[in-house]
Design brief:
By secondary structure, the protein is of the alpha+beta class. It is built from 15 helices and 14 strands.
C-alpha cells in the first residue's frame, strides 16, 4: 500500500475532527446563581403562603399568591435569557470553528498540491539524475592512509558506487601495495560488496578472465558486478564483487588476517583443506598432461632481470649477479655459499629443458596467496578474489606452490625467522625426494616455537592436498621420472619463490630467506634431474 505524503490528503478523514468549544466557566456560574436564587424565592414564597393561609385573611393569601406567580414569571424570563445567551455563544463558537476548519482545509489543499508537485519532480529526478548521485563515503578515517594514497582510491569508490546515497568502508583486507587494496563495502541498499582497487591493466585482465573464473570456482560464490578502468595501464581502476551466500553482518576476514591473529594451527590447516576441496577445478576441467618441466616453469628473461634488480636493494644480497655460479649470503655474522639461482636458470638448466613429467593441468587462479582467500567466521564459507592472473591449461601445482611461498616468506614474521633456525627448517622441507615423504606428520613440528609450528602445520596440510592432487596425474601421463617424483612440485615452488624477491610487501629478511630457498631448490632439482629413471 502506498504511503506517500499525498496519499494521506486524499480524503477529509485526515482532517482534525470538530470538537465544540465548551461554555466559558464564568457564564455557567452566572446561570447557576440566577437559577438558584429563583428557586430559593419560590420555595420561600410557598412557605409564607402556607403560613398566611393558616393565620391571615383570604385577600392576603391571594395577594401573596400573585407575588409568587410574578416571581416565578421573572425566574422563567431569567432562565430563557440565559438560554438565549448560551445559544448565541454556541453559534458564535460554531461559526468560528467552521471558519477555522475551512482555512485549515484550504491550507491542506495547498500543501497537498505542493507535495504532489515535489513528488513529480522527484520521480523525474530519479529517472534522469539519480545515477549521478555522488555517495557519501564513510569509514575512510579508520584506514589511516596517507592523503596521496587515500584520495585516488576514494575517487574510484565514489565512481563505482555512483547513484548510492552513501557507502560504508567496513574493512580493508590487505594494503601491501601503494594505491591498491581490497575493501568490504556496504552501500545504502545494505548489500555488502567486495571492491578491488588496482592498476587498470589488472582490472582489464581480470575482466577478460571471467570466462575461466566460473569454471575455476564452481563451488565458490565470487561473482563479478561491475568494473572501472582507464585507458592507461598504470591508471587506477576498480572492480566490484558479490559474494554468494554472504550473510548480513557477516564477519569476513582474509586468510592472512586470520593466520596472523590465531594461535590455532589446526584451524588454519582446516581452511586450507576446505579451500582446495571447494575451489579446485572440477574434474571435467582438469586433465593429466606430460610437459617439459623447464619449458613450463622457467621464468622469462624479463622476470629474471627484475629479480636481479631487486637483489640490488636487499642488504646482504646486493653483490649477487647473474655472472657467478655460486652466491655468497652474509647473515648474522656468518657467510654461506649456495648455488646462484640466477646463473642456474640461465646456464645450468639449458641441457635439461626437455625433461618431461606428467602433471595435472587446468584452470588456475594464478596468484593464490593468503590475501586472496576470504572466509566467514565461524567458518561458514570461503571465497576467492583477485583473478587477474587466472588462466587455463596451466599446471595446477602452481597454485599450491604460490600459497606455500606465501606461508614461508610473507606470513612467517621477521621475529620468528631467525636465519640459522629458518635455513635448517627449509632444508628439512626440501629434503624429500618422493611424494610419499613430501608432507611430514604434525608430530615432526612439536619442538618448534609457536610461530614456526603454525607455519609447519599449514604447509604440511597444503602438501598433503598437493600429493593427492598429483596422484590424479600418475595413471594418465608419461615422462622421464617416476610417478612419485617431487620434481614437478619443486619446479613450481622455485618458480613462485623467485618472484617473492621483488614483492614490495615482503621485508628484506624475508627476501633473504626466499633467496636461500630458491638456491636450495636449484640444488635439489639438479640432484633429482640426474636421478633419471
Amino acid at each position: 500500500m502506498s504511503d506517500t505524503p499525498s496519499d494521506r490528503f486524499q480524503n477529509s478523514d485526515a482532517l482534525p475532527a470538530l470538537n465544540p468549544y465548551p461554555l466559558p466557566s464564568a457564564l455557567r456560574a452566572e446561570i447557576f446563581i440566577i437559577a438558584l436564587t429563583a428557586l430559593t424565592g419560590l420555595l420561600g414564597g410557598m412557605v409564607i403562603t402556607l403560613v398566611y393561609l393558616g393565620l391571615g385573611t383570604l385577600e392576603q393569601a391571594f395577594l401573596l399568591g400573585g407575588l409568587i406567580a410574578l416571581g416565578a414569571l421573572l425566574t422563567l424570563l431569567v432562565l430563557l435569557r440565559a438560554r438565549a445567551l448560551e445559544q448565541n455563544a454556541i453559534a458564535k463558537w460554531t461559526n468560528q470553528i467552521t471558519a477555522e476548519r475551512r482555512e485549515q482545509a484550504r491550507l491542506f489543499k495547498h500543501q497537498r498540491a505542493q507535495i504532489e508537485s515535489l513528488e513529480t519532480e522527484l520521480a523525474l529526478y530519479t529517472q534522469t539524475d539519480a545515477a549521478n548521485i555522488i555517495p557519501d563515503i564513510r569509514g575512510w578515517e579508520a584506514l589511516g592512509m596517507p592523503e596521496a594514497e587515500l584520495a585516488p582510491q576514494m575517487q574510484i569508490l565514489a565512481t563505482l558506487f555512483r547513484g548510492q546515497a552513501r557507502i560504508l568502508i567496513q574493512k580493508k583486507f590487505n594494503g601491501g601495495h601503494r594505491n591498491r587494496g581490497i575493501y568490504q563495502i556496504r552501500a545504502s541498499d545494505e548489500a555488502d560488496r567486495i571492491v578491488k582497487i588496482a592498476r587498470s591493466s589488472d582490472i582489464r585482465a581480470e575482466r577478460q578472465a571471467q570466462k575461466w573464473i566460473d569454471r575455476f570456482s564452481q563451488n565458490n560464490g565470487t561473482r563479478y558486478v561491475r568494473d572501472l578502468h582507464g585507458a592507461e595501464d598504470d591508471a587506477l581502476g576498480g572492480m566490484v564483487y558479490q559474494l554468494a551466500a554472504l550473510r548480513r553482518n557477516a564477519n569476513i576476514v582474509s586468510l592472512e588476517m586470520f593466520y596472523r591473529a590465531t594461535q590455532r594451527p589446526a584451524t588454519c590447516a582446516q581452511i586450507i583443506q576446505q579451500l582446495y576441496s571447494e575451489t579446485l577445478p572440477h574434474s571435467e576441467f582438469r586433465h593429466a598432461q606430460t610437459i617439459a618441466l623447464w619449458r613450463e616453469f622457467a621464468l622469462p628473461e624479463r622476470v629474471l632481470e627484475r629479480v636481479e634488480n631487486a637483489l640490488g636493494e636487499i642488504p646482504n644480497l646486493a653483490h649477487i649477479t647473474r655472472a657467478e655460479a655460486t652466491a655468497r649470503i652474509v647473515f648474522g655474522g656468518h657467510t654461506q655459499l649456495v648455488r646462484n639461482p640466477l646463473y642456474w636458470a640461465r646456464v645450468e638448466m639449458a641441457p635439461y629443458r626437455d625433461r618431461q613429467a606428467a602433471v595435472m593441468c587446468g584452470v588456475i587462479h594464478g596468484d593464490l596467496h593468503s590475501g586472496n582467500v576470504l572466509a566467514e567466521f565461524p567458518l561458514q564459507a570461503l571465497w576467492l578474489i583477485d583473478f587477474a592472473k587466472t588462466r587455463a591449461d596451466a599446471p595446477t601445482l602452481l597454485d599450491f606452490a604460490r600459497l606455500e611461498a606465501d606461508l614461508k616468506f610473507f606470513l612467517l614474521t621477521d621475529e620468528a625467522a631467525d636465519y640459522a633456525r629458518v635455513m635448517q627448517w627449509e632444508e628439512q622441507w626440501l629434503a624429500p625426494r618422493s611424494t610419499t615423504t613430501l608432507a611430514p606428520s604434525d608430530e615432526a613440528f612439536r619442538e618448534l616455537d609457536a610461530e614456526m609450528q603454525k607455519a609447519s602445520v599449514c604447509i604440511a596440510a597444503l602438501r598433503r592436498v598437493a600429493v593427492n592432487h598429483r596422484a590424479d596425474a600418475q595413471s594418465e601421463g608419461n615422462g622421464h621420472f617416476a610417478d612419485d617424483s617431487v620434481l614437478p612440485y619443486y619446479f613450481a615452488l622455485w618458480h613462485t619463490t623467485m618472484r617473492t624477491l621483488y614483492y614490495a610487501q615482503c621485508t628484506a629478511k624475508q627476501k633473504i630467506y626466499a633467496f636461500f630457498s630458491a638456491a636450495l631448490l636449484a640444488e635439489r632439482i639438479m640432484q633429482l634431474l640426474n636421478d633419471r629413471v
